[in-house]
Write a structure and sequence with these properties.
The protein has 205 residues and is an alpha+beta fold. The protein has one domain. Helix content is 41%, strand content 11%. The protein contains 7 helices and 7 strands. Strands 3-4-5 form a 3-stranded antiparallel β-sheet. A hairpin with a 2-residue loop joins strand 4 and strand 5. Helix 6 runs antiparallel to helix 7. It is flat, with a radius of gyration of 25 Å. The termini are far apart.
């Protein structure tokens, strides 16, 4: 009996395999090569507009976060890995066809209530936090997916603007590779106009 118990315990135990540093370095190098596979190399002078476009298209940190968000809300289709830069279009679009309802029961007898069930969550929600809803002016519509509030596509434009801002700074290098040359006056005017236009759209005016 003791031998049987020891055998069963041995079968259920896990023995993690040590990963060599050389193997980790090889995997990291392969990941870097895969991330840069479809990145168009620079050929000549890079304008401000082109730098912003490259940041939005090839930003690896943003692509990773889009993948994490898509997986978190269970929106990932394994057959469409080639659409990694476009996963934002897939995230946050699964919505409830009906409101979430709850039924109550008597706190003393425990008997179910005979009244109609009440609605706990609508199919479409508005962010209850004023500091989040009013950042760009106006409210931000969201949907609830598996207990999480997923912003609508409108918030994606705010993300794009946040990604563009580090690129749109005169005399600043982008990850040490790209130097944007622009006059501070014209650059500030461009950023101000873009922010004002974004705020105007998000406010719904």
């Amino acid at each position: 009996m003791v031998g049987l118990a020891l055998a069963a315990a041995g079968c259920g135990s896990l023995r993690p395999k040590t990963v060599a540093e050389a193997d980790l370095a090889e995997v990291n190098q392969a990941d870097k090569l895969a991330a840069l596979t479809n990145v168009t190399p620079l050929s000549g002078t890079l304008t401000l507009e082109e730098a912003i476009a490259r940041a939005l298209k090839f930003n690896l940190d943003r692509r990773s976060k889009l993948m994490e968000e898509a997986i978190a809300v269970n929106q990932l289709d394994a057959s469409r890995f080639d659409m990694l830069p476009k996963l934002t279009a897939q995230a946050g679009y699964r919505t409830r066809d009906q409101e979430t309802t709850v039924r109550s029961k008597d706190s003393v007898t425990g008997a179910p209530s005979l009244s109609n069930p009440s609605i706990s969550h609508d199919a479409t929600h508005i962010l209850p936090h004023s500091e989040l809803a009013g950042v760009m002016g106006g409210t931000v519509a969201v949907r609830e997916v598996e207990g999480r509030l997923i912003p609508e596509q409108a918030v994606y434009r705010v993300t794009l603007l946040a990604t563009m801002q580090p690129i749109a700074l005169a005399g600043q290098s982008w990850r040490g590779r790209v130097m944007v040359e622009a006059e501070p006056e014209s650059l500030a005017e461009r950023v101000a106009k873009a922010a004002l236009a974004l705020w105007w759209r998000e406010a719904g005016w």
